[in-house]
Amino acid sequence: EVQVDELQRLLAGMEKEHRSLLLKMKEGEAELARLRSVEGDKLAKQDRSAQLEKEVAMLREKIHHLDDMLKSQQRKVRQMIEQLQNSKTVIQAKDAVIQELKERVAYLEAEVGLIGGNLEMHDRIEHLIEKQVSRGGHSSRVRSKSEYVSRYVGSR
Question: Would you call 141 helix, strand, or coil by DSSP?
Answer without folding.
Answer: coil
